[in-house]
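Give me C-alpha cells for this 525-residue protein.
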Amino acid sequence: ILLFGCDVAQGAVGLSFISQFSQATGADVAASNDLTGNADLGGDWDLEVAVGSIEASMALDAQGFEGLLNSLVVANQGNNSISIYTLNGSGGFNAPSTLAVAGTAPSTVVVGDINSDGLDDILTTDETSDSISLFINDGAGGFLAPQSFATANTPVEIALADVNNDAQLDAIVLANGANSFSVLLNNGVGGFNAAQNFAVGSIPVGIGVVDVNNDGNLDVLSANLANQNVSVSFGDGTGNFSAATTTFGIGNRALDMAVGDLNGDGFADFVTANAQSRDVSVGLGNGAGGFIVSRYGLNARPDGVALGDVDGDGDLDIATSNYNNDTLGLLLNNGNGTFGAPRAFAIGSRPEEVLLADINGDGNLDAITSNTTASSLGILLGDGNGNFAAQPSLAAPFAPAGLAFGNFGPTAPPPNTAPVATTDALTMDENTVSTIAIADLLINDTDADGDPLTLTAVSNPVNGTVELDGNGNVVFTPTPDFFGDASFDYTISDGNGGEATTTVTVTVNEVIVPPPNTAPVATTD
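Here you go.
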C-alpha cells in the first residue's frame, strides 16, 4: 500500500503507525516522512519509509500480488482451528487448508514474523483456554505444530509490536475476563516469555498499540465496553506499562477498535465501533497522550471496524461490519479527520469482523467480513473510488471469527530471463588448430538477471570439427586442406533454466605453399 500524504511516516509515531497499518491490513506499506506533492510547494513524490518490501511504484498485477500477499487466515471458533485460503489471482480463493490450534475457541488471528526469518507466522487468541497459539512458518508453505502460551483470563484481541525495543515482535493480548492485557515478550528463539499482566478498564474489547505521547515508546489503548471509554497505558520502552488511569469517553457498548493517523498530523488516533449507540467514536490524538473524541452515527450496529484508504485520496477511511443490517458501513475521510455521511454495501448475513486488503491485485482495497452465524465470508471488491461490488460469499463452515492476511510461501521465484548469446568471429589458417578460451567467447554474452554464465556445449561444426578440451577451451579444427568460411555453435546457460545458442564464424585463410625447390643440375662442359 502506498500512502501519499504529508509526514505520514514522520518520527516514531509515523513509523509506529505504518507498522500497525501493515499488520492490520496484511500489506507492505510505504509512506512519506516529509512534504508530499507539488515541488513548488516544497513537496516531492518520494515515499521514504517502508514496512515490508515494496516491489513496484504502481499497482501490482494479479500475478505479482499473489506472491506478495497470498493467503487469508480465518480463526474458526466452531472447531478450534484456523483455515488458510490462498488467493487464486482473480479476486477469489482456493479451497482452504485447516490446522488445529493449541487451545480452544480461537477468536482473533494476526500474522507477523516472530522468529525473524522473513516469513509470516500466525497467532490466535484462544478464548476458553486462556492462551494464544503460535504457528511458526516452516518455510515450505506449511507450519510447525502450534505452541501454546498462557495469558490472562479470556483473551479476545491480540496485537504484535516491539514494545521493548529489541527489534523483535512481542504479543500484546487483551483479556476481557481479567480486565487486563498480557504482554508476552519475544524470547528470540521463536516463542515468548511468560506473560506480564497490566490492568485496564472493565470488559476490554479492542486494543491498539501505538506511541500516543510521542516519546518513542509504544503505548496500549484499550476500548472498555462496561466503562464506555478508551484507557491509555503508557509504555516505558522495556515492556512495562503504567496504570490505565487516563481515559476518554466513547459510545455505548464498544466491540472493536482500530488505530491510525486519521488527520495527517503524525499523531496516533483511534476509532471504536459502538454497537448499542450505533455509531463510531473517533479520537484524534494530540501527540501528548490526549484525545478529542467525536461520534459519527451509522444507523446500524457496528461490530467490527477497520481503517484503510478506500477512495485513493491518501487518508484513512472507516469501514464497519454492521451486524444488524448485513452491510459494510463506510465513512469517507474529508482529509482532516472528519468524516462524511455513512454509506452501506450489502455483504452477507450478520457480519462481525471486517478486514480491508487488496485481494485481486488491482491496487484498490477490498473488504472481507466474517459472517459467523451464517458460516460464510462476505467479499466486496473495491473500485478505488469508495465504491464496492458484491461478490459471492465464501463458505466458512466452522463459525469464522478473526481475519488476517499474510504471505506464507513458498513464494514463487521471479521469472527467469534467458541469457543473450552474441555471435563471435575468428580467423585462422588452413591446416591449423584454433584453441579459444571459453572466457573470450562469453565476454560479449549477457544476462539481464545478472546470473553467471557457463558454456555448456558446442555443436554444428561446418567445414571442421569442434570440441571442449576440458581445460576451459574450445578447440576448432578445419577440414584438412580447407580454406574459406567455416563455423560452429555454442550454447550458454544461466544456471536457472535459461539457455541461448549462437554461432562463431570462422574464416580459414588459404596458405599458399610454394612448390618444392628443385636443385639445379650442373653438367660438364
